[in-house]
Amino acid sequence: MNTQDAKSPVTPPRKSGIRAALEYTGIPPSWLDKRPRLPSRNWLIFLSVTSSITGLYIYDRRQCRRIKQEYIEKVKYLSEQTADHLSWPRKVTVYGAKWPGDEDYDQAIKYFRKYVKPILVAGAVDYDMVVGKRSGEVTRRIAEEIKARRRVDAGLDPSPSQEQLPPGYPFRPVSELRQKELEGGIVIIGRPTFKEYMAGLKRGWTESMEKVDEDERLAQELEMDGRFDEPEEPLEVGEVLSGTEKPSSSALPPSPVLSHLQYRLPSSQPKSASSSPIPESLNSPPAVIPVLPPILFVTFTNYIGFKQIPLMIWDFFNQRYKVRSGAEAGYRLVMNSTRPFNALEPSSQPLFSDVTTPPTSSSRGDLDFDKEAESYYRSSLSSIPDDIEKARKKYYDELVGKLATARALARGTREPTKEEIENPPSTEVELRADRMKKEKRWRGDLEGWNIVRPDKEVEWDERFRNALRVFDDPPDTDLPTVPTT
Amino acid sequence: MSFLGGARSSNPTGGLNNDKIEMAITELDTITDFFNRMVSSCHTKCVGTRYAEGDLNKGEMVCIDRCVAKYNEVQKKVGEKIQSRGAAASGGGFGL
Question: What angle do CA A388, A108, A132 make, to 5 degrees?
Fold first, then answer.
């Protein structure tokens, strides 16, 4: 080797033509000598972590797109048919109640829009979205709608007629509208919505159908409890405390304590007497409920809170499962095949309650829809009634002072202090309005919580058994043969 | 924001009242403009560029229904907002 080197110093060994040419172009020789080798340990860690995360993300989103596309292709033929322009498309109603404990009330509707809606749009199904901003809102709305319908059926309210519409407007009689409604359906997103929906159905078909002005009733009730009454002597603490329990224990019937309020009673009594002009025969809940639009269940779990962050991360990389479940639900709805509502023995059956296991552990068929989602509720929710009670007590304790100030200022028994001139304290009227607002909110929240709370069963009525249907997987999932264009 | 009702009621009364005619013309312009915008945006959104057949298909019908409803609703909301702002600015020449 040495002798060879010495003999030919001009041409170094193993220098190929390309190498020489590259070297002469000015590329540093160290670059040309580079051998591929693994980057350092830290680089390896960094690269593998980032690439696997991006990889997971990209893979997931591609799958999402593929799944969505697959279902869209399946239903597309429906939207490509041509129909008479004056015909009405199929229309479904989507209910999305507030998820208990989440301040964002429209999470359920967002879920619908993201995962179910694309299939409905592709299948030419129109939809109407109803959002419950607070728990219990969906229930109230459904109950009101049903009562309105019953009133029309009983002939108490006029059914809509051609005259009420602008001329030339296509008029559809009630029967046709109902038929359309049955062809449509109800989309229920998540367990809380289901509970609210069933509670609303039960309430609507059971309660009497007279029109009740809730605000008016609440105002009367609040008037009765005498919190704004003139104290003969300064209120003592014990009196205030006994007052706090009053609204829950005694509602409308005037208690002897309030006898000095008698002059108010005449105004309220005729109202309660005239409030049920509906004859008893009409007003009793119907024994048979007409067929209701079929229900589509969409499973939905909303993760909230610090402890569920790992689940949220898992979800972020596995959206394809949600896309699939949403798309399947949408597909079921579009294909419009239904099965009867499968409700097993409700827990209130006295016949079996002594024989069978406790109803909480037994399965209740469709009434158990998405039940596991309830285990994701925040545990702090169970204190909602206590929180409301506490807030109420605190408010009423403060109210006494505020009321005294307002009255003193209104009657001029004392001069307003400098501070009060700058920020005038609320007057008695304002206080009343404020209280009304607060009470309404508290009561509404409590009512809502009592509907959706986990230990409460879904409302059920035997009359629903033949009236309700559920969307199911279409029996034949093959694509109908459509000529591809 | 009274669309058709306002136009109809203000039109035939005042004989040859110039102000009223002006107003009616402006109103008509607004409505025409609104309508044209709505048609063009809903058309681009809903109707595909490939005209396979003369009639709308079902998907397009649903889409147009929703589009028009949404457009109207937004228009109404924006109008209300502008009106309330105009009222708040006490007619100080605030307009969009």
Answer: 50
* Amino acid in the structure at residue A429: V
* Helix/strand/coil for B57: strand
> What is the rounded distance in angstroms from the CA atom of residue A234 to the CA atom of residue A223?
20
The mean pLDDT value of chain A amounts to 79
Q: How far is B57 from chain A (nearest CA, A)?
A: 4
- Residue B47 C-alpha, separation from nearest chain A C-alpha, in angstroms: 12
| Cα A273 from Cα A356, distance rounded (Å) | 46
Helix/strand/coil for B19: helix
- B59 contacts A79? CB cut-off 8 A: yes
Sort out which chain A residues have CB atoms less than 8 A from B56's CB and list them: 82, 85
A46 contacts A306 by C-beta, under 8 angstroms: no
The model's pLDDT over A145-159, given as tens digits with 9 standing for 90+, comes to: 988 888 888 877 777
Is A81–B57 a contact, with Cβ atoms under 8 angstroms apart?
yes
Rounded Cα gap, residues A187 and A471, in angstroms: 10
- In chain B, residues with a C-beta closer than 8 Å to the C-beta of A180 are none
* Cβ contact B61–A85 (<8 Å): yes
Handedness of CA A463, A467, A472, A474 (dihedral sign): positive
Give the per-residue pLDDT at A14. 64
Find, among A344, A445, A337, A438, the residue nearest to A386 by Cα.
A445
B52 contacts in A (CB within 8 Å)?
Answer: 485
Mean pLDDT value across residues A25-39: 84
For A50, the token pair is 């980032």
Residue of chain A whose Cα is closest to the Cα of B66: A126
- Closest residue, chain A, to B50 (C-alpha): A485
Q: For chain A, which residues lie within 8 Å of any Cβ of chain B, measuring from their own Cβ?
A: 78-83, 85, 89, 121-122, 124-126, 485
Q: Which residue of A has its CA nearest to B55?
A: A82
Q: Beta-carbon neighbour count of residue B72 at 10 Å?
A: 13
Interface contact flag, A83 B65, Cβ < 8 Å: no
The Cα–Cα gap between A353 and A50 comes to 57
pLDDT digits (tens, 9 = 90+) for A242-280: 444 444 443 444 444 444 444 444 444 444 444 456 676
Structure tokens at B17: 């009242």
